[in-house]
Amino acid sequence: MADETFPGWHGTTIIGVRKGGEVVVAGDGQVSLGQTVIKGSARKVRRLSPGGYDVVAGFAGSTADAFTLLERLEAKLEATPGQLQRASVALAKDWRTDKYLQKLEAMLIVTDGKDLYVITGAGDVLEPEHDIAAIGSGGNFALAAARGLMETERSAEEIARRAMEIASDICVYTNGNLTVEKIGG
Known about the structure:
Elements: E1 9-10, E2 13-19, E3 22-27, E4 31-33, E5 36-39, E6 45-48, E7 55-61, H1 63-79, H2 84-97, E8 106-111, E9 116-119, E10 125-126, E11 132-136, H3 139-149, H4 156-170, E12 179-184
Antiparallel strand pairs: 1-4, 2-3, 2-11, 3-12, 4-5, 6-7, 7-8, 8-9, 9-10
Helix pairs in contact: 1-2, 3-4
């Protein structure tokens, strides 16, 4: 299909919240094509264990592209066990400079329980302010909700779940079918 007529895949909200020594990554399950929900139960948050070190990753964007990036991240983590920042920077560098990887359309949130990063195809490895990272169609809604909830007594998981609930009420490309992974604490 020509780009002008293809409605494009939409739908994902991923949030990472760090609070009280734990980090939670939560993602919804919706995949949409134009105005149609194609699937409501996609799993966009995964636990990786390269070299025996747990890492949780959530992705927004093209699924095939995201899996390619997750495989590359796993390889980088196997080469530098326990060094998430180094592996993330190496992945971002490859993503930015490799002609094949440059065409990939996805974003990642990754954490090892201490560090929390957003990795983009522009070569960015961003450590979010306020201990919250959010990506995808409803990312800004979830981010705003989570920032408002950080001052409460809620745990990281409670904040992530409530922020995703709020985002799903606002963003038509986000649903309430969550995958939640906790690490640290």
